[in-house]
Amino acid sequence: MKTEAWVIAAMAASWMVFGQVNAEEKALHKSQVPKAVLDAFEKAYPNMKDVEFEEEMFNGNAAYEVEFKTNHKEHEVLYSANGTLLQKEEEIEAEALPESVADAIRKAYPKAKIKEVEKILKPDDTMTGYEVEIVTAGKEIELELDTQGKILRKEKE
What we know:
Elements: H1 2-21, E1 26-28, H2 35-44, E2 52-58, E3 61-70, E4 73-80, E5 85-92, H3 99-108, E6 113-121, E7 127-136, E8 139-146, E9 151-156
């Protein structure tokens, strides 16, 4: 009986930890976003209109994504609750993907159509990889790839 209870407790703990890591993004109203995040965003990107906010997990911690457009391109910036910039994403054309990245997608998903591509940047603008949304067999899949084309993560939308 003790072993059974231990197994159930371990499974529940595992679900809580891994469930949070894979939790979907949650849309937020501006009033629900920490002031430090709003201040940091507004300082870095003054006068942005049509801004959207989401809460998500980043490296096991709550983070706040701010989505906006400039020059007809989508941008996403990710902040910690205290307003520290964690990551940036910038929309690019699919044709701008390096050949090694495009080849990796074609090899893993030969019949896929690329829907959207974003380059992933560190706060200092060092590129770390790509986020690519594809459609294959009627399903949308989001891929994260490193700069060499290795698929690091895939998530069904």
